[in-house]
Amino acid sequence: MTTISTNLQAVRARIAAAAELAGRAVEDIRLLAVSKTFPPERVREAARAGQLAFGENYVQEGLAKIASLADPGLEWHFIGPLQSNKTRPVAEHFAWVHGIERLKIAERLSVARGEERPPLQVCIQVNVSGEASKSGVSPQDTAALALAVSELPNLKLRGLMAIPEPTGDMALARRRFATLRELRDALKRTGLALDTLSMGMSHDLEAAILEGATIVRVGTAIFGERARI
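The structure corresponding to this sequence follows.
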């Protein structure tokens, strides 16, 4: 059994255990394998082990990987910061964008996606920990941005995403994720049909699942430590 296959089994077991503890169906939680900085061969290895959804942070790297693999069965999510001049290739080649924090980016994605393709699935990134170094819209500005994004053609607003500060404090991690869940629930009460909470990574996926995560973004626990680029 390959290392990636073994790692995937271990991560899926962690997800299942957390779902059971939370009283949730494990089928309601998707695993997104964060493959940034890893070569296409490693993605192919994960795909052979049954993992089909992959997250990329860097536009050019992600596009090269998509072209190299050329596998229509794989689902590609863009999860990094997105600049205006990179919106077109992302809209044309990815199925999801997780990190929308400005209306301008959403508007450009909408135009670039076009009506001939299925809607681009998008999440709004929220800075739930208030760190100046973190991307994301502030919690108090989330509703206005969500409403504006939900009205754009060619996009489907699915929910919210967050990357809280790393912490070994389970209670703090849960509070951060609870903030995102409460924001999502408040938006649903206004009539927005949101079903996604993209939150939780290798070190804190259990806390995220306990607070309602529907997508966990896991890289290191699957692929190992990554080289810096």
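The chain has nine helices and eight strands.
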